[in-house]
Amino acid sequence: MRMLEKLKIKRDYLLIVGGFLLLLLCYQLAIKRTIEAWHQHQQLKKQVARSADLSYQPGYLERKRLNLDKILRHYNADTTNLRSNLLSNISSIAEEQNVVLSEVPGKDASFNRSPFSLEKLSFEGDYFALLKTLNKLQSTVQAGIIRSVSLHLKKNMGNIEKENSLVMDVYFIFD
């Protein structure tokens, strides 16, 4: 006590400084940990609310995306290969009926505005052979769906001895 008397500090100031030190010690030992626990509780509460929402499941969505990618890679088709296979099927059907597949135009951009591919093929032959070919094409599954058919007479200008031929234009829809 003599030492405090020599410093000549008022006891009121010592009480304030001591109270401040006690408050700092209480904060470090108890209050700080309580605030940290409360923040962690709030974060965990948000995570539980998010996991209860079925639309937000990152693990499930990632697995689903990977499975869909596998399926798409498995069924990825080369369109030129598919087109050539379809044309070979159609030309073999035409050959069976003694009909000539006379014209296979390139892909027209105006035909491909929908998710389906539209193709125009021209066949030459006599009337009954063309109708038999059309019937066979309608009943064949791998040939596509026939959208429309038009028959017209093709005039041969260059050769007089060659007679005019009947042409059937068929518009196919492919998936």
Describe this entry's structure for a reader.
This protein has 175 residues and is α+β, with helices and mostly antiparallel strands. The protein folds into two domains: 2-71, no CATH class; 79-174, Alpha-Beta Plaits (2-Layer Sandwich), CATH 3.30.70. Helix content is 55%, strand content 19%. It contains five helices and four strands. It has a four-stranded antiparallel sheet. The mean pLDDT is 79.
Tell me the structural class.
alpha+beta
Content of β-strand: 15-25%
Can you write the helix and strand succession as a string?
Answer: HHHHEEHEE
Uncertain residue ranges: none
The rounded Rg comes to: 43 Å
Number of helices: 5
| Average of the residue pLDDT scores | 79
User: Could you state the CATH homologous superfamily of the largest domain?
Assistant: Ribosomal protein S6/Translation elongation factor EF1B
Overall number of structural domains = 2
In short:
By secondary structure, the chain is of the alpha+beta class. The protein has helices at 2-7, 11-52, 58-74, 79-96, 127-139; strands spanning 100-103, 117-125, 145-154, 165-174.
